[in-house]
Amino acid sequence: MLLEVRRNHVMEDALGTIRYSQDDLSSKLQIKFIGEAGVDLGGLRREFFSLLVYQFSHSALTSGKAYHLD
């Protein structure tokens, strides 16, 4: 599964993509940051998950908003 995300909107883009492509969840995850050149050999995935955790914890703690998958 290729996940194309904007660096400043990782959580929003990831949740939107996962919501519409649940069949792909069992395939290998590859990350592409939109507007950036790079091949995901593992580093982009690590950076993606770091940004995802940061954005999730930051939004949940500072805004009181919760993100739910319907």
UniProtKB/TrEMBL annotation:
SUPFAM superfamilies in UniProt: Hect, E3 ligase catalytic domain
Keywords: Transferase, Ubl conjugation pathway
InterPro entries cross-referenced by the UniProt entry: E3_ubiq-protein_ligase, HECT_dom, Hect_E3_ubiquitin_ligase
EC code(s) of this entry: 2.3.2.26
Catalytic activity annotation: S-ubiquitinyl-[E2 ubiquitin-conjugating enzyme]-L-cysteine + [acceptor protein]-L-lysine = [E2 ubiquitin-conjugating enzyme]-L-cysteine + N(6)-ubiquitinyl-[acceptor protein]-L-lysine
Highest taxon of source: Eukaryota
MF GO annotations: ubiquitin protein ligase activity
Metabolic or biological pathway: Protein modification; protein ubiquitination
GO CC annotation, single: cytoplasm
Protein name: HECT-type E3 ubiquitin transferase
Natural source organism: Dreissena polymorpha
